[in-house]
Amino acid sequence: MKAIEVVNLTKRFGDFTAVDSINFSVEQGEIFGFLGANGAGKTTAMRMLCGLSKPTSGRAVVAGFDVGTQTEMVKRRIGYMSQRFSLYEDLTVMENIMLYGGIYGVPKATLRERARQMGRRLDMTSDLQRLVADIPLGRKQRLAFSVSTIHRPEVVFLDEPTGGVDPIARRLFWEMIHEATGDGTTVFVTTHYMDEAEYCRRVSVMVDGQIRALGSPSELKQNFSISTMDEVFRALARNSLRSE
Amino acid sequence: MKTLPILLKKEFLQFRRNKLMPRLALLFPCMVILIIPLVATMDVQHVGVAIVDHDNSTLSHRISTSLDASALFSVTTAPTYADAMAMIENDRADVVLTLPRHLERNLLSGQPVAPDIAANGVNGIKGSIGSAYVMQAVGESLISATGRHVDSPSIVYRFNPTLDYRHFMIPALMTMLLIMLCGFMPALNMASEKETGTIEQINVTAVNPFTFILSKLIPYWIIGLVVISIGMAIGVAVYGLVPAGSLTAIYTASALFILVMSGIGILIANFSSTMTSSMFLMLFIVLIFILMSGLLTPIDSMPEWAQNITLAVPPRYFINIMRSVYLKATSINALIPDYAALALCALTSCTLAAITYSKRN
């Protein structure tokens, strides 16, 4: 079964077509990179997949349910972490875990056990009782990812998850994502760091609301006969009408 | 519904950790109820009376002495009317009393007499109430001078015998507190979740919108009831104003009214994307609520079209209940229309708040 299947998905705001009839699918357990310049429409597309935005036309199936009509069923099966920081800063990490896990109906004892595991895995046991506001950004992002998967979702959506942190913190973040996909979780991630694209099994590049390229990083580099994803991205984005 | 306790716990933790909100919710009511009744008094005292005495008779002297003896007036004499007017312009007098020539003679011979009173209209309340006091005092002197016994009308102010403005004001202040706190705090809370982006994280879960809105309403409901209790306690302790009616009547009305205000606060936040815009909209609504609800000026003296508008202003019902229960001990049964109107408003605003809170756009 495909984790995500998108057919002619479109979103218009008045005259402006933010997402223009895109098609793609994501395999279960895959890390799928959703690339695009600012304003290319990737956040809008992702918000539709999460049920935060209603598609104008087309359809998308996430974890077996239609995002247009079975939104709440989709929501029960996904995790989401946005670029705008998504944990409550005035709660402790543990309180955030109990809140999000509780909303998804995970029993308290299970949540406590998972929190312990998470603390050990990230080497952040001492951070569990700290207020989120007091934790450095890089650690916070790794915690936010772990909290967004505390209910063991089938698909996790990450919207520019590593904005504003140094390369070491980003590397740690991606190692963690790779570990997470080991148990079959599908990761759908938007980014504009091209070095991060190399961590993905497949990537799509969005320009002006359309998907202009899709494939594994090595395939894309081969097709464009260039050596880095950075150059692939620039070759595609060069013709953008919406460029800043 | 299983998620409601979890969401409520989050709200209370956040409220407790907030540096401003708990203090605001406790100190604001204390300050308002302690200070405002003392300063914003409408009791008129120290009315400056300038007397222009053209008669210079026993009677005219008796009138000035009797005014001077009253604590309400501070009397000065002016040689001419122009001098007296100058005193008004300099703010040294509020009312000019002119006693015409032959006042005593005309009065004793049974001819009509007309002392003339002019009042400063700049401070309208002091001018009008002050001149009424002066008129009453002069009238009494004139009557006693004729030696005839005249029954003057006896006025008794029921339910607030001394017309103590505070008794009228404290229920009004408590209403204002609820309007401010229970309207603004939920609006701020919702708008700040929007601004920090945490609401996205909630929207992406399968949480029921009604449950989420309830988790926003209930904390302010409790805070509002605490605020009302603080207000009543200070009213008793400091001003000796014990509600004449039942506490049940007061708490029932408060419970409904808080829901109205919190519902409106959330409704506003649903339609604004930032805290700033939600605060601006709230301020606008609160101002209209305060001015149109009969809090400051009686609804009966508004033009008819405005009176009709006040029917849609929820605090109008609450203030009416509060004053009736507080001063007249009116029972819930006698105020059923007001309670029903409040309940309807509460239902409408909370339902609208829940419906317009949309998890996706």
Structure characteristics:
heterodimer; A: alpha/beta; Rossmann fold; 2 domains; 36% helix; globular; B: 361 residues; mainly alpha; abc type-2 transporter like fold; 14 helices; 4 strands; 6% strand; elongated
Describe the structure.
The complex is a heterodimer of chains A (244) and B (361). By secondary structure, chain A is of the alpha/beta class. Chain A has helices at 42-49, 71-76, 93-103, 108-122, 137-148, 167-181, 194-197, 217-223, 229-237; strands at residues 2-13, 16-27, 31-36, 57-62, 65-66, 78-81, 155-159, 186-191, 202-207, 210-215. Chain A folds into two domains: 1-77 and 155-244, 3-Layer(aba) Sandwich (Rossmann fold), CATH 3.40.50.300; 87-152, no CATH class. The longest helix of chain A has 15 residues, at 108-122. Chain B has helices at residues 4-17, 21-39, 58-69, 81-89, 103-108, 124-146, 165-196, 198-203, 209-239, 247-271, 275-292, 304-310, 315-328, 336-356, and strands at 47-53, 73-77, 95-99, 116-119. In chain B, helix 7 packs antiparallel against helix 9 (209-239), helix 7 runs antiparallel to helix 11 and helix 10 crosses helix 11 (275-292). The radius of gyration of chain B is 27 Å and the shape is elongated. The mean pLDDT of chain B is 86. At the A-B interface, helix 2 and helix 3 of A face helix 1 and helix 8 of B.
